Amino acid sequence: MLNYKLLRKWILCTSAIFFIPNSYSQVVDQIVPLNKTFYSTPAPGVMFITPIQLDTASYPAALAILDEKGDPIFYKPFTGGQTGPYLPVMVTDFKIQPSGLMSYGIQKSPGNMIIYLMDTNFVVVDSIKNINDVDTDSHDFIHLPDGTFHLVGTEERIMDCSSLLTANGIAGSVNATVVGNVIQRFSADKTLEFEWKSLDYFNLSDVYSQYFTNPNYLDHSHYNSIDIDTDGNYLLSWRHLNEVTKVDANTGEIIWRLGGKSGDFTFEGDTMPFSAQHDARRIANGNLTIFDNGLYNSTPGARAIEYAVDEENFVATAVWQFAEQGGLPSMFIGSNRRQSNGNTLIDWGGAFPLSESITITEVDEAGNVVMELDFADDLFVTYRTIKEVLPFELPRPEINCNGETNTLSAPDGYEFYEWNTGAQTQSIVVEDTGIYQVWVNQGIGYISSETFYVDDLENVCGQLSIVNNSTQLFEIYPNPARDKIYIGKSDHSTISAVNIYNQVGEKVVGFVRIKGNLDISSLPSGMYFLEIIHDGQSTVQKLLISK
User: Residues 470, 536: one domain?
Assistant: First the structure.
């Protein structure tokens, strides 16, 4: 039975809550919305994403940082024009570097890629490009604590491709333009220290015909990730070779080749070679993780896969994998990142049709889905998703409350202020209960405050207490919520029932035998009370719904 005395006490202390609709003109109106579903509590950290338009859409391309609930806390939209395939600009590889700086790559026009470094205030402190007539490729980039830069770019050569057949069975031109990749390593003062060219080491025939579509033009290796292995050598992923290669970072000699036509390894526990793969990484346990786009697999379908790699006997053993539901192949991009708690965060890239695919999935070691984030606009993908526990504090503005004047204020010193009321002033007068947040300019973009809850106009500064994550008995996530919530006991046993009551004590919805998500999409914004029935006992928890 619901504890009505306790419920009435809470109702008396809580005035009616109405939620203020977003009416941002410069920030939130440009944020592509995400549908969020939580099945349990995800790994700690914030997520770095790069929403990319695949066609003309209602939102611009951007850099974004999401909190653990999937809500944006930093946003930098890019509205400059560009012709396809990515509109209006292509942004890539937003992450924290080993140096502690943040970085991103941007293609402002075809062939014009630049990589930028930012400090912890999102101020650009440096930029770098390849040299020696090598065009910069912003798929991936490394900046080490000693200031060393590791870039990969592209070069073009005229070569005889007449021995190769295109995807349509046509012989290649004897004077075809062939694109290869170039590794360049720079010292902290940007002096070139090392250069390696893929066309000097790979045979033209290593490319798969599916990627050779124009007899006069061959994008041969098509690199998409670079990692520094534990021994200091390079791990490189080549999409058009279906191969991951280890290269000696001093001599340039190939140490081994995994997958592809010229691979050195035999595979165990995995009968389906990876194809068009991305994001090859050495992880803490010594294994290798790959995002297998699965574009030309015998059974097409994207997956995240982990191999134990025996580099002495050249055996790669698949020890863990998780596949995209429905067997959808991913046409391009994507990532596979192991988290500190053992979970795996997967960005499915261009898994088509996008309307049937999830954008981002987090799963636990047993393959249980923990979280799903999906762009509400199917014209969007994100190049890669990286979750990090930040080694620094984000410079988020703190909302100050004045109870005498019922005002909320953002700190001094910003050129731009925007509240979720639509106001673009430093301070606002609170005239209604609800959720308040302010965005301010920060470096190249905008950063948000924590949300501020007002549930009593007689006590504006007394914030509503909301439990967001786990308690001793239950996991309730997220709170505030929108369409779904996850409720589970810490021992993962089944809850017998959950009832939801409005502020006047009326039961508005009920669920039985709960283990996972609850659909609350039919409930309007407001304050509710969860009655959780377990082991013959009843526990009441506040729930805030914000559409």
Answer: yes
Asked if 507 and 431 count as a contact pair (C-beta separation under 8 A), the reply is no
Distance CA 230, CA 228 (A): 7
Using the structure block, give the residue that is written with the tokens 């407001």: 526
* 511/488 same-domain check: yes
Q: What is the 3-state secondary structure (H, E, C) of 269-293?
A: CCCCCCCCCEEEEECCCCCEEEEEC
How far is Cα 280 from Cα 301, in angstroms, rounded to an integer? Answer: 18
What CATH number has the domain bearing residue 474? 2.60.40.3080
b/e 355-385 (16+ beta carbons within 10 angstroms → b): eebbbbbbbbeeeebbbbbbbebbbbbbbbb
Residues 358, 325: Cα–Cα separation, whole Å: 9
DSSP one-letter code for 410: P
In a domain, 534, yes or no: yes
Q: pLDDT per residue over 69-108, tens digit each?
A: 899 999 998 875 544 444 456 789 999 999 999 999 987 6
- Assigned domain for 363 exists: no
Query: What is the helix (H) or strand (E) element at residue 7, kind and residue range?
Result: helix 4-13
Residue 508 lies in a domain: yes
* Whether residue 418 is found in the same domain as residue 446: yes
Q: Which amino acid is at 381?
A: V
Domain assignment present for 501: yes
Structure tokens at 509: 């919805």
Domain containing residue 505: 4-11+464-545
What are the pLDDT digits (tens) for 25-81?
578 788 899 998 888 889 999 999 999 888 877 888 899 999 988 999 999 988 755
